[in-house]
């Protein structure tokens, strides 16, 4: 029995298996095949990189399928896409409304008439037209670019928003550092509006709103109205040496009917007597006081608007990256 086990353990020559590679066996790699496979794989990989993801390769080939990365839109990408689309759609409609109001104002005042074309550059309605046109064009590019996944329009939109952000920051810095000069420009504009008070309905409306809401009269004081040819003391008519009714303390005079003649002859009164009839202080001081009282609110609104614009740029950038990856690897 022991002898049997000893013989069983000794490998007999006729019982040895052939461990050499069989050339006819398809499952056993040939000698040196590892090196050949590595060279072939490196050759295929180099050809793929030279040809690009879609150039010279069949999308259904197993080599391309094993090398091609896969990219799909996530839920966040879809949310950003339609969020950007809806926001720009709302502001596009708003821009069209502003543009329509500006054009309606210019047409109703016949600003395009031959005798009024020379003064159209100073027309306040032109500001509405310009603002509405820029807002519509800017938001429309973002709206269509997000909906159609157009990279060119999205790049144009993000670049325009960046320019707008830069311009707003520069204007804020200049207004803060050049406060005295800004006050001088504001005073010149106020005086120019007073000169054209009777001739331009828009300037008249703006001046009346400022005087009635801020309870002021003129630029520096009520005697500034002498620069107007109708309220000048040497002018003929009932308005001579007077002020507009919006300068009056009580234009209704405790009644229900607006008294447009309440400021007649107010410039001839001394300050003690005039203070019971009209507002003595100028509107420039009223504007300065209003800004000081609401500077916190103004700063908050400015930061919020700037933050929304910066967030829009980040959303557009993220959407651009997703669209580019999807178009390359779809």
Describe this structure in words.
- The protein is mainly α and 330 residues long.
- 61% of the residues lie in helices and 0% in strands.
- The chain is built from 11 helices and no strands.
- The protein has helices at 2-9, 33-51, 62-67, 75-108, 124-148, 151-177, 179-195, 201-214, 271-274, 283-293, 295-329.
- The chain is elongated.
- The two termini are 73 Å apart.
In short, what is this structure?
This protein is mostly helical and 330 residues long. The chain has helices at 2-9, 33-51, 62-67, 75-108, 124-148, 151-177, 179-195, 201-214, 271-274, 283-293, 295-329.
Give the overall average pLDDT. Answer: 78
Strand content: under 5%
- Could you tell me how far the N terminus lies from the C terminus, measured between alpha carbons in angstroms? 73 Å
Strands, count: 0
Ranges with pLDDT <50 over ≥5 residues? 1-8, 12-16, 18-31, 52-59, 61-70
Secondary structure tally, helices: 11
Broad structural category: mainly alpha
Radius of gyration: 40 Å
What order do the SSEs take from the amino end to the carboxyl end, as H and E? Answer: HHHHHHHHHHH
**Quick one: biggest sheet?**
none
Helical residue percent band: 55-70%
């Amino acid at each position: 029995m022991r002898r049997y086990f000893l013989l069983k353990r000794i490998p007999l020559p006729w019982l040895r298996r052939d461990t050499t590679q069989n050339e006819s066996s398809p499952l056993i790699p040939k000698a040196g095949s590892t090196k050949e496979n590595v060279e072939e794989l490196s050759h295929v990989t180099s050809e793929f990189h030279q040809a690009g993801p879609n150039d010279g390769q069949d999308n259904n080939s197993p080599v391309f399928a094993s090398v091609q990365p896969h990219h799909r839109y996530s839920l966040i990408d879809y949310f950003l896409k339609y969020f950007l689309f809806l926001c720009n759609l709302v502001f596009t409609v708003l821009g069209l409304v502003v543009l329509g109001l500006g054009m309606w104002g210019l047409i109703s005042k016949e600003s395009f008439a031959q005798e009024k074309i020379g003064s159209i550059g100073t027309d306040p309605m032109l500001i509405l037209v310009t603002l509405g046109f820029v807002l519509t064009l800017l938001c429309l590019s973002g709206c269509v670019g997000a909906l159609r996944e157009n990279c060119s329009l999205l790049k144009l939109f993000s670049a325009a928003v960046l320019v707008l952000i830069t311009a707003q920051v520069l204007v804020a810095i200049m207004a803060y550092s050049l406060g005295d000069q800004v006050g001088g420009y504001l005073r010149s504009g106020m005086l120019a509006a007073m000169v054209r008070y009777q001739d331009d309905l828009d300037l008249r409306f703006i001046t009346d709103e400022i005087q009635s809401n801020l309870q002021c009269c003129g630029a520096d004081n009520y005697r500034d109205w002498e620069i107007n040819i109708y309220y000048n003391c040497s002018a003929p008519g009932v308005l001579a040496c007077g002020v507009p009714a919006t300068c009056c303390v009580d234009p209704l005079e405790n009644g229900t009917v607006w008294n447009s003649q309440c400021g007649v002859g107010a410039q001839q009164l001394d300050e003690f007597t005039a203070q019971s009839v009209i507002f003595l202080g100028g509107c420039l001081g009223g504007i300065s006081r209003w800004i000081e009282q609401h500077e916190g609110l103004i700063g908050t609104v400015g930061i919020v608007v700037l933050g929304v614009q910066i967030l829009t740029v980040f959303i557009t950038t993220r959407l651009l990256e997703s669209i580019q990856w999807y178009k390359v690897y779809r």
